[in-house]
Amino acid sequence: MCQLLGMNCNTPTDIQFSFEGFAKRGGLTDEHADGWGIAFFEGSAARCFIDHRPASDSPVAELIRNYPIRSYNVISHIRKATVGQVKLQNCHPFIRELWGQAWVFAHNGDLKNFHPKLQGDFLPIGETDSELAFCLLLQTLKNEFGYRTPANRPSVAEIDKVLRPVCEQIAGFGTFNMLLSNGQAMYTHCSTKLEYIVRAHPFKNAHLVDCDLQVDFGAVTTHNDRVAVIATTALTNDEVWTPFEPHTFLVFEDGCPVLKNGQRAAL
Amino acid sequence: MCQLLGMNCNTPTDIQFSFEGFAKRGGLTDEHADGWGIAFFEGSAARCFIDHRPASDSPVAELIRNYPIRSYNVISHIRKATVGQVKLQNCHPFIRELWGQAWVFAHNGDLKNFHPKLQGDFLPIGETDSELAFCLLLQTLKNEFGYRTPANRPSVAEIDKVLRPVCEQIAGFGTFNMLLSNGQAMYTHCSTKLEYIVRAHPFKNAHLVDCDLQVDFGAVTTHNDRVAVIATTALTNDEVWTPFEPHTFLVFEDGCPVLKNGQRAAL
What we know:
Chains A, B: InterPro entries: EgtC-like (IPR026869), GATase_2_dom (IPR017932), Ntn_hydrolases_N (IPR029055). Two copies of one chain form a homodimer. By secondary structure, the first copy, chain A, is of the alpha+beta class. Chain A has four helices and 16 strands. Chain A has a single domain, classed as Glutamine Phosphoribosylpyrophosphate, subunit 1, domain 1 (4-Layer Sandwich). A seven-stranded antiparallel sheet of chain A has the order 3-2-4-1-12-9-13, covered by helices on one side. In chain A, strands 5-6-7-8-14-15-16 form a seven-stranded antiparallel sheet, covered by helices on one side. In chain A, strands 10-11 form a two-stranded antiparallel sheet. At the A-B interface, strand 3, helix 2 and strand 5 of A face strand 3, helix 2 and strand 5 of B.
């Protein structure tokens, strides 16, 4: 099993505080030492940093800890290899282009006997069941909506409607906790384990679970900022995180949940 | 105009020496200060580091200078913005997946009135003519060869045959010096300016043009190593680089040129 971290905000925000604790789980406070990765959106483009070395010991992770990259949407993953070797091609997040947008995906869980029929528009580069699932999600979107330009891309609600049944179908093959973003919204599915928190004014202090680090969010935010953080397990021990109910499909936009299993989400 | 750097080898090699000089051109010894990027292949997967800050001053470039990533194929680019703003989405190299392989592309030159008809399998995320050209190259490959799996991908010679006329067609719109790789071979087109060198046993010393740094390749290589380095202009001042003739399409594999304008290349 692996660990997921996602962030969705209404203003470009850096993820250094959360990543500091999260990266510790890659070999120090937890056993997920088989590579890791993080992707930052800037508009429709994303830059993805991956490394086969444990996050707790990776020069690339060291860069991320020290270089504040501000983004509306971030997806990170640390890997405990179960299917596929420790190789770069098996490190999440995975990235593909559809409709002139980068799409970024990371998955926690194992899928058994999962051999979806792919039509060739999106094929896995590595050997993981996760990348297969990502290709199936994108192929389904492409089949449903066809060729779209930036001027007529489907809406968040339209995308939600197509993704939900595919995610349920994939979850039938095992555990499918996942984060997916195109830079506009963060689509998430929980089959077993995922928690989130929405931070907004009035901001408070927060203290990490995985190391002795504290931040006063009030000092680094404005009244209008709103940030949703999603993780496999809570990253802080003095805030109230909301666990996902199993088999929930939750969409975040502008730093808060907007659709829960297809219905307008209440904060 | 921008600057290109490529490396194609028969053994995984790090690019630190060449990158040290090349990165200086991003704001110090030359004016290409509008972002930069570098992609390293490992098998069919590639990891791509891009930054909108000048290469001479980028924390990500600092990482690359200090973290030896060994690769068979590397493509790097430093940008002087002419078309498209200084934004992450306009930084080369660009990356897409086709036939379960990452494809990486970088371009030097401007294309005027270039509006190719794209069918939607590969669409630009940013605003550059370069990314449009990349999408056209991949769409042409996909149209020609259809759905291919790792077991029946086209050969280097077959790919060469399809890419050459498209590159000539694109070069009709302006300057089209480019590097393209799928991790197996490095496809290059020169319309005005590109030079290369093949380093093999017996290896010698080399001294950079852009800073006072020297390396003894003999001390860090074996007798069997072979490395081709391709750049907009020579990176060293005590080796003999071979300038490309204008309108040359040259393919490198295992560290040496193998096809020149469709004919077997002589070393």
